[in-house]
User: Fold Alpha-1,3-glucosyltransferase from Triticum turgidum subsp. durum.
Amino acid sequence: MAKPKKSRNSAPDPSVAARLPWQPSAPPLATALLISFAALLLRALVSVGPYSGQGAAPKFGDYEAQRHWMELTLHLPSSDWYRNTSDNDLAYWGLDYPPLSAYQSRLHARLINASLPDAVALRSSRGFESHESKLLMRWTVLSSDLMVFFPAALWFVWAYIKDGVGGSGERREGWMWLLAMVLLNPCLVLIDHGHFQYNCISLGLTLGAIAGILSRNELVAAALFSLAINHKEMKLPLLFKIISYSQASATNMI
Assistant:
């Protein structure tokens, strides 16, 4: 008995059909590293540009605000960080972020003080702008991004796709676009690396909290989101959304 001939027009593999022509066929790790490198390069390019308030007395803009907070947290006791004193004029870039942000400024101040103490000297450094100090400040932002936001983004994408949370088939094939959208977010890149901000820390902690919920690590999620709120209070409106995610995750486990 003759064997039936296989049809030449066999059904295409759904994963192959879902892949766009320009999607790389490289292994996931290599693709993730390539996207991360592109995001890092974009941040470096943005950081060489100007920033708001550059050279504009009397407050000198965003750079001076962050530099001044480093100056205060380095030289003053924590009890004076939020009080108006002879060394802390709240009318001149008073520290208005929660304590974790202040301790982050203190850590960065110690790093800068080790190589360029004039940049964070108490009182005398007001309005201090040099190429070296701005370069050091840029590096503090970039290193914070690499150590907090990048790992959180990778964890979030992994947790979103794992076990079908992010869907299957075509949506699973799109994990690289999800990672690219998170790491190449123009708002975060322009604000943080263009204007000496550290939103990458609080956003990274928040993203890590969401990843913790998706991967059913509620205690880790609670700890990370608590840190996010204590870094920048603007994440507080997300509290109820985080709680709803946690409740939905708990329901799915029953």
Residues 55-128 form one domain. The chain has two domains: 27-45+143-254, 55-128. Residues 213 and 245 are 7 Å apart (CA to CA).
